[in-house]
Queue: 2 jobs
Job 1
Amino acid sequence: SSIASSDSEFISYMKNKAKSINKALDNSIPLCNNFVPLWEPVLEVHKAMRYTLLPGGKRVRPMLCLVACELVGGQESTAMPAACAVEMIHAASLILDDLPCMDDDSLRRGKPTNHKVFGEKTSILASNALRSLAVKQTLASTSLGVTSERVLRAVQEMARAVGTEGLVAGQAADLAGERMSFKNEDDELRYLELMHVHKTAVLVEAAAVVGAIMGGGSDEEIERLKSYARCVGLMFQVMDDVLDETKSSEELGKTAGKDLITGKLTYPKVMGVDNAREYAKRLNREAQEHLQGFDSDKVVPLLSLADYIVKRQN
Amino acid sequence: SSIASSDSEFISYMKNKAKSINKALDNSIPLCNNFVPLWEPVLEVHKAMRYTLLPGGKRVRPMLCLVACELVGGQESTAMPAACAVEMIHAASLILDDLPCMDDDSLRRGKPTNHKVFGEKTSILASNALRSLAVKQTLASTSLGVTSERVLRAVQEMARAVGTEGLVAGQAADLAGERMSFKNEDDELRYLELMHVHKTAVLVEAAAVVGAIMGGGSDEEIERLKSYARCVGLMFQVMDDVLDETKSSEELGKTAGKDLITGKLTYPKVMGVDNAREYAKRLNREAQEHLQGFDSDKVVPLLSLADYIVKRQN
């Protein structure tokens, strides 16, 4: 059965999805091309793009995109270009985040960060190229029978997710947060929540929304998946904060304990580790509630995905 | 008359166009908003976006976009969002180009570069936000009566212009060029040409193409405008190289003579200043030839624009 009903079934379901996603991502950035002028310099950028895009990562965003598409009655293949696009946008932002002038990180998914391998200039080009390719991929969905109106709406969602209504706002809030003072814990928590919604949840939301758009979902279905994804995205970030404080760099595959050192606002810092874990569990319950009304068999992967995120150890 | 037939008429025509463009750009990035969460951090990014986007620049790209739209029978206002989008993409790339890890420039249009004023982190966010806003602006053209098909095609052109088929390829070639050796002058010239076509001409092309798409142009009209714009874009870069070598920083409003110091490949370096000027003039003639077949009154601004670029002093 393609539907996951137990933990182990879900893991294998997720691995299968990740396999299709990885294959599509691999094909999207060739290492060989005889028709591109300036191929040699471009090849170096392609290598840098592939380095961060393949093969690591849990593929949570593209998987969510594919599952959302299927949930509303679409084919997995219809949402594949958009799913890849969302992962490209994510990879592009990771490359920039790790730069010396940003978070100055040297380790990501257990490997040296992009600029450590390719140099800052090529990393910045790779990040730009990934975002541009994301748009091109999504536009190519018209060749899979998706209407221009729906493709346009999908591109709009993605642009929203990476701009000042999404990622940029979250990162700007992150920068500003280090020098901000708050009147009370409630204010601090509200700020933290908005920051994480923008830094993480908005792109997770976009993944689900874009999948549902490609699959031909109704406005109501899209809205419900969006609410689910917002909870999941926020929960993902809460758990990220918890893991950063409680796990080693080795376990995480990236520099651990960094939030504490840099004095960043995090959930454990504002509410304590235990309360943060409780909050993640509450978000999980909320996420699951938003899925009521969908076919109870078909939502199983999304329920399992939320469970998986709240239980994850790295 | 709105059509420019002499040098001075063209200058005032261009100033008028720049005025409408500047107004639209100004409106596109507000300094006041009561409905955006995280407004304070976002405001800082908006300021950085505006700093590079307004008010400097010759507005060659957006102007070309508007004129192309009108030439094929469209209204200026129909292409205005796309014209702004092209200028945003241009500004976004200028911000990144000037970063310490890229060209490390401290002066641009007579002012300190973006990161000198806002810091590298905010500059990078501003650059990303400008590119995302460019997509949003272009998509909004549907509200002006442009079909979804045409809007998608326009977004595709823009994505192509900034990715590995455009800007990124040109910049990667620029990076690689510093360490490349060539068998002969012909090879060197071919490489230089491809580099500049990608670094500059492809976005100038996109400006014209997108304008013609928005204006409802036929495929043939779009192709002719594209060929014209490629010549103009390349000519623009040839003159940029010439000016960098022959003018002072004060005259240019940016660091002059930098290409020589950094050992960059330039037209004056490969063919000498005089030959480079001659080449620019030849490109001007070619550009004008591509406009044959259009209404001879309506092409006057494009002919004047090409003349203006080949004669410009900064």
Note: Chain A touches chain B through 55 residues (CB under 8 Å).
Job 2
Amino acid sequence: MLTLTTFRSVPSFAAGYVRDLRVRWALEEAGLPYQLRLLAFEEAALPAYRKEQPFSQVPMLQDGELTLFESGAILLHLGERCPLLLPQDAHARAQVTVWMFAALSSVEPYLAELVTLDLFHAGEDWVAGARPSAEAMALKRLRDLDEWLAGRDWLAGEFSAADILMCTVLRLLDGMDLVERFGRLSAYRDRCMERPAFRKALADQLALYAQTSQAA
Amino acid sequence: MLTLTTFRSVPSFAAGYVRDLRVRWALEEAGLPYQLRLLAFEEAALPAYRKEQPFSQVPMLQDGELTLFESGAILLHLGERCPLLLPQDAHARAQVTVWMFAALSSVEPYLAELVTLDLFHAGEDWVAGARPSAEAMALKRLRDLDEWLAGRDWLAGEFSAADILMCTVLRLLDGMDLVERFGRLSAYRDRCMERPAFRKALADQLALYAQTSQAA
């Protein structure tokens, strides 16, 4: 049995955006059943959890004897079971891994920086000075991606784990009206989000946090 | 033949820190010979290059029919040829990929943010406001790593591609006296840098840029 570790409850702005969504989505695409292990925020900081996850983060995935963290590594692992996530042909596989790392290394940090400014530093007096260059960096990456998507439905051939990562990265900017400036890119994000596996994963995460918020 | 694409020349602060170092180092560890394809900065912005590398970045690696970018994906690919970089045993392999993604997703963005502030925004009046929280985030990740390294020589069992990525990530902070606050972590970084393959890779990159700077 596969066991996915995530937080038991999160602040309301994070519901629908917790990174376990990537793993839930991949598991739905692969048709693999899983159970949840729910963690209180405070538990993530304790030595017992930090021995498994040194950054006190979620998600983690337990697959028999194997315990993995980092959503990229988890998706790569699930890809070994499911060629839809990670094709077996060497050429196609290389392109998918390229785009998995691109989503997490070349796009996410720039988008996350904007979210950090707007969400965690809102109102601090230096933010107005920091924001223009951060937004310019994010927009450059969005423009690069929009250009890459000319004539492509997915980042690397068929739909793959790379699209799961990139779509969830783009969703960091929900409500900021930035992705929407790029026609191909926003159509791509919407195409990802129309997949039944995404909808199921999102609904499941939202249902959990609706429940735990009521209980809180 | 393997062909590594990198910049023909770089500003002096970047010599020794261009990300092709990760690939050079991995190639030296694997004992794989390679040739260079040198790119002018201006060429990286041209459509011909952006068809191969949509973010106008280096490094790229050409391996026969395969062309890859993203240093993480390139190291994963080289790992298929070289078990020292990426072990074949499923458990060991999973731990190495976890730490490859951890280096690039959970550590590098926080360290790179500090470098961006100090190097690219030095003197702007908002930086003094932005820096404390950026430094706190970076220090948290360094502390997490230092704790993980208790009783470990390398991140995941034996030396692997994960250590190549993490060491080059830590080197982003060279001269900032932050890694040096953590005994195990700085000893780990030094242990990585003592490897003959690292020394050869670094010497080769420095030699190229010494040469092209003289020519400029």
Note: Chain A is about 55% helix and 10% strand.
